[in-house]
Amino acid sequence: MSTAPISIRVSQDWRRASARRRATVRDRAYWALTKALMPLMRATAVAVGRVGIAVPRPADAPRGRAPGPNPYRVLLLGCGPAVGWGVRSHDLALPGALARAIAGDTGRGCTVDLVADPGMNITKACRLLAGMVLHKYDGVVVMLGVDDALRLTRVASWRRALTQLLAALRAASLPHAEFFLVGIQPITSISLYDSARGRIAERHARALNVATRTLAEGAPRTTFIPLSAALAEDSSTDRHRSPLQYAAWASSMAAYISGRLHTVPKRPSAPLTADDERIRQRAVDRLNLAACNSDPVLTDIVDRARQGLGSAMALLTVIDHDQQRNIAATEPVPAAAPRIQSFCAFTIRGGDALIVRDTLRDARFRTNPAVTTAPQIRFYAGFPVESPTGERIGALCVVDTRPQSGDESFDTAYLRELALEAERRLWCLATDEADRLVHNNH
């Protein structure tokens, strides 16, 4: 009997064993080098981070919004491109670009809230997540790893922390929420890290990306999104990143995200939980409501709402404890009304417009004193107004003493745009008051 097949098998087994030994030697050498370089790489990360302080970054509210019905709510958590280096507004950075890309893909509105920090790594993200409210999000996008690649975080430590992060996300989020793990961009595509040390970090980033992709493939409701290098035409600018780059990244990310969000059901309007209400009230307490009451910009917004939507009256309200505070109105109204009688208290339960065409035909409102007695409201339309941290605090609304039939059209998009304008003005007034207090204290 010929021994050739046995010899071939032995030779193949020997070659495979030799290849494994060589790979093991390479891995050990690589990790020995990595361990030796860790102090140097961490010092580099700190030093370059100080240089990055001079690069422009957004200073406005950390959110991007795109109009549309039944809007999706997405949280973007991370560092690197999430920070918005090179632009002055988050609307031009990744939150705004991603909101527009998802809205364009789905035909629905989208709000992208941002929690980002240049020095955020996987360990810091796990700690930060413990105090966050996540049950309002349809999707969470995690964009971490640049700092971990630069600091040469061990792959095993990265995998363990990322597993903990995903478990915490699933425990704190809605049952239908989707999670997206964005890969680390090529490190040397960041001009500050285009160096020999950057190439070391880039090789390590590839190892972290492999671990992330493998973890995402085995986790429920989790998708890995690879991130490309910067656009060639963008790397020649002196602004680090441009709106064009963020739009390109957002488009490629939305290709993975939008299809997963299409199956999310329309979220029903529901009473706020006690925890939700405590968080919401803290957001109201941070506003400068005293300055809002006589603000001419807010007065102009409600005037345009009344005229543009052809209603008898328009109001901007804030739900404050057990009252509805009337911040601006086109007609004389009391400064406050009981929350139990408030239409806007129902509006803040959902993320979209509340339209009541005939209050006498709606069981929620037919016995409301504002319906049965003066001002005898028969039609109501309101859109929620949010705080900078995403809590729904009040509404811009229009009311009328005559009902509307289902055949009559109502311009929800215009009401939404005015509500967002009022929202931004409230944020601006709150920021001005905070700056004034800081100035007076110094």
Automatic annotation (TrEMBL):
The GAF domain, residue ranges: 297-417
Domain of life: Bacteria
Domain SGNH hydrolase-type esterase: 84-236
Pfam families named among the record's database cross-references: GAF, Lipase_GDSL_2
Protein name, as recorded: GAF domain-containing protein
Native source organism of the sequence: Cryobacterium tepidiphilum
